[in-house]
Amino acid sequence: QGQLVESGGGSVQAGGSLRLSCAASGISSSTACMGWFRQSPGKAREGVATIITGGGSTYYADSVKGRFTISQDNAKNTYLQMNNLKPEDTAMYYCAAAPGYCYPNVQSYFTIWGQGTQVTVSS
Question: Residues 36-41: what's their mean pLDDT?
């Protein structure tokens, strides 16, 4: 089935940066997509960024375009570089894997999930 473990969360001031990491183990080499999602208290979980493992195409939520960058290494470890953070970026961030076809940032396609890492941005 595989396992995903996130790290790199923390507390920063607005305008700061964080780099989240997602360590993947036991993930199939045929995994189609890796993604980052986030959930704030009282809100639904939303897709932040997706990377297609085959071709490297990336997709971002409008709210993070130009500020966040998703990347991946050969071992399917996935990263999320977050710059110019805003208080509204405060959330629990989750890494996820989609074993087959995925629609970017649509969580129903992602079946393997990490436990999450908290990001808090103060104004």
Answer: 96
